[in-house]
Specification:
By secondary structure, the chain is mainly α. It has helices at about 75-85, 90-150; strands at about 30-35, 70-75.
């Protein structure tokens, strides 16, 4: 498997419009937990006891966030921080600027092509009119030559 550096990854993160946001937000974004201290009265077996005070919701339990030094972690903020550090926005900004410049140049060329096409159509219309006048003059000359030929013979 190939190892890729974090700067080589490209991640598209679409924005959410206010219409797409859910009306009810679940309150899962904050978690307050304090790990058990060494030498605490918590049951140290692999399967916790259901009668233990720390799991029964008593006020003196090790996992009670109101008594101990609980760390409150905002999961949304944590994910934003991790995504922010994983994605370098500078190449994206440069690409966006280059895309805007290219788009502007393309639009200018498209406008120039439309103007040249209109000019070519005007010139073609004039050339057709000149050709029609030339054909009319040629027919008149032929008719005059035919009339003159009849008169001479």
């Amino acid at each position: 498997m190939l190892a890729r550096s974090p700067s080589a990854l490209s991640v598209a993160v679409p924005g959410k419009s206010p219409q797409n946001l859910p009306m009810h937000r679940a309150s899962y974004s904050r978690v307050a937990v304090s790990p058990p201290q060494a030498g605490s009265s918590a049951n140290s077996s692999a399967v916790p006891s259901l009668t233990s005070g720390s799991y029964a919701g008593s006020s003196g339990g090790d996992y009670d966030s109101s008594n101990g030094p609980a760390s409150s972690v905002d999961l949304v903020e944590l994910m934003n921080d991790r995504l922010g550090s994983a994605v370098n926005p500078l190449p994206l900004d440069r690409s966006l600027a280059r895309q805007a410049q290219t788009s502007g140049a393309l639009n200018a060329k498209q406008q120039e092509l439309l103007e040249l096409q209109a000019l070519a159509q005007r010139r073609l219309k004039g050339a057709r009119a000149n050709f029609a006048d030339g054909m009319k003059a040629a027919k008149e000359v032929k008719r005059d030559l035919d009339w003159t030929q009849k008169r001479v013979s």
